[in-house]
Amino acid sequence: MESIGVNLEKMRLRQHLKTEMAHYAADCWDMEIHMSYGWIECVGHADRSCYDLIQHSTRTGVAMVASERLPEPIQVEKLVCEANKKLIGPRFKGDQKLVLAALEGLEGAELDTFKSAIETTGKATLSEKYEITSELVSFTTEKRTVVETKYTPSVIEPSFGIGRILYAVLEHAFSQRDGDEQRCVMAFKPSVAPVKVGIYRLINHAPFDPIVSRIKDLLHNENITCKIDSSSGTVGRRYSRADELGIPFGITVDFQTLLDHSVTVRDRDSMSQVRVPFNSLLEVLQGLVTEKLTWAFVLSRFVVVSVKEEEGEGSAATAAATTEAAPVVAPVVVQYSTRGSFSRPNPLSK
Predict the structure, then answer these.
(1) 117 FRET partner, CA 20 to 30 A, in 33, 57, 221, 349?
(2) Angle at CA 156, nearest 5°, toward 152 and 162?
(3) What is the pTM of this model?
(4) By percentage, how much of the chain surpasses pLDDT 90?
């Protein structure tokens, strides 16, 4: 659940009380997620023991058992129930095959209980509906070479409420930057986000178009879903629109790209940006999308860009995102705005 974006601090496991469990359950646990409606059961795990297979075996007369081969054969003394087929046939007629199969399936404690009832009262109930009297069966102890053990398997029943889990992912991913209703963010994990990467032009400028198309083709060839936002307005407004859609990473093509073949890569959650050479772009994005690379690692490897994201007219607030390379401080930072960019020594570098 945590890997798809459910908040670990809002999950808990709760064991059912005996009064809550179904008749077939030996134990039952729920995984509950806290949402705006309170604690909601989203996953149930029931230990049905061997109830289901025993019921099938009882109704069909077919032994529902599994076998496990032993590493080496062993000699054991085994209690055997032998059926008197000459008497069972006329007594049970059409059900004789079911009775014989049920008698052959008696083993272990169940066979001991059956024998004790026959010896004590002269009769015993088989499969909850057949009355077996003493003349119909006999018991012997014989030595056998055992090469496998047989048992009735237990059944674990997991049940997932997919709709509730998806609602939890959506609710836990939602936030607002600084409480601003105009700046909503869906912080989807990269593995969950429908669109992994947004591609932007700093402005609508013809020389940017072939570079944007090249980046799109590069990502599509590696099955990384991306979306080009060519709408009007500042790039900051487009970033905010992508944040609302839950796009975790963004690539911006600007005038610096035309000079040194590098682009800025933006992280949605921290709003920080780094300058990445084109020949390293695919490797970085593959690592980020598959979550094999962390954003902190990317910050330590590439030049950090100090930017001011402008929402444009009518926005409720202006977001200032000044980033630092951690744990390694970049020696050079790029001051970047809608009017251009320039490099200068990083004042934090010592």
Answers:
(1) 57
(2) 155
(3) 0.64
(4) 48
